[in-house]
Write a structure and sequence with these properties.
The chain has eight helices and eight strands. By secondary structure, the protein is α/β, with parallel strands linked by helices. An eight-stranded mixed β-sheet has the order 1-2-4-3-5-6-7-8, with helices on both faces. Helix 1 links the parallel strand 3 and strand 4. Helix 2 crosses helix 3.
Length: 281
């Protein structure tokens, strides 16, 4: 059942799965994505393996606090402190952070800023969050062309759905079959559930983080990097860089997987998460 939690003076929509006595996992979605992208079946799979799982809507997604499109009224730092305040709302001193895409960047910064609250990190389909001389490859040409050439009318739900289905298709990469009906059902549910779906654009307007902090090599949380070999947004070199820079990090490559958590990989990812978080079980 969904549960609103007041954090930093705003209300975020959350949902938990499993026994609160089990080791806690906070799922951190990428920017522009509501908690629906942590699909319920995936959450229940992890919970069934003996973990207490929490998913939530970022500000301007789903049923969380929503701002006027073009005027977010908050910063990227607020999204990070939201995550820590959610732990307070569930009376958790710390949790394992499982993150995807830009949520992985948030998780890395949380591990640097609040190390005592991060039991471990699982970083899926993401890239290093701090500056560095890495020379990492850009998104592949097909994905970049889609982003440059596609248009969407955010006031028209059908236009939004068509655009996001196409975007999801591109994120899936080119090595596996794409289930358009499955993607369309998820996108439609996300659009219909949101207070104002157009407000998700506010995440594109958030100011870059300018806080001085240590390098990724100063992360002390045990870290697992999971990366698809066919990720079109962050090619595999991004995952390799993370695993190389964070001390003791392990790398799990998903053959043929694109960007995100695909149903075909649920069992593999769940087992990896359960194994990685076992020290706190």
């Amino acid at each position: 059942m969904e549960r609103p939690v007041d954090v930093n003076g705003v209300e975020l929509c959350t949902e938990s799965f499993g026994d609160p006595a089990d080791p806690p996992i906070l799922l951190v979605m990428g920017l522009g994505g509501s908690m629906l992208w942590w699909e319920e079946g995936f959450c229940r799979l992890i919970a069934g393996s003996g973990r207490f799982v929490i998913r939530y809507d970022h500000r301007d997604t789903g049923r969380s606090a929503t701002y006027e499109p073009g005027h977010p009224g908050y910063t990227s730092a607020d999204l990070r402190t939201d995550a820590m305040a959610l732990l307070d709302g569930y009376a958790l001193p710390a949790a394992h952070l499982v993150s995807v895409s830009a949520g992985g960047a948030l998780a890395q910064l949380l591990a640097l800023d609040f190390p005592e609250r991060v039991l471990s990190l699982v970083l899926i389909s993401t890239s290093p969050a701090t500056p560095g001389d890495r020379d990492l490859p850009p998104p592949n040409s097909a994905f970049a062309q889609f982003v440059r050439s596609s248009t969407v009318d955010w006031s028209d739900p059908d236009s939004v759905i068509d655009y996001l289905v196409g975007y999801t298709r591109m994120l899936a990469g080119d090595q596996r079959a794409f289930d358009e009906n499955e993607a369309r059902d998820l996108v439609r549910a996300d659009v219909e559930r949101a207070h104002d779906f157009a407000a998700r654009q506010n995440h594109d307007l958030l100011a870059d983080d300018d806080k001085k902090r240590g390098p990724l090599s100063s992360i002390t949380a045990p870290t697992l990097v999971i990366h698809g070999t066919a990720d079109p947004m962050f090619p595999l070199a991004h995952g390799n860089a993370l695993a190389a820079e964070i001390p003791g990090a392990q790398l799990l490559q998903l053959a043929g997987a694109g960007h995100g958590v695909e149903r075909a990989d649920w069992d593999t990812i769940n087992q990896a998460i359960v194994t990685h978080t076992a020290s706190d079980a």
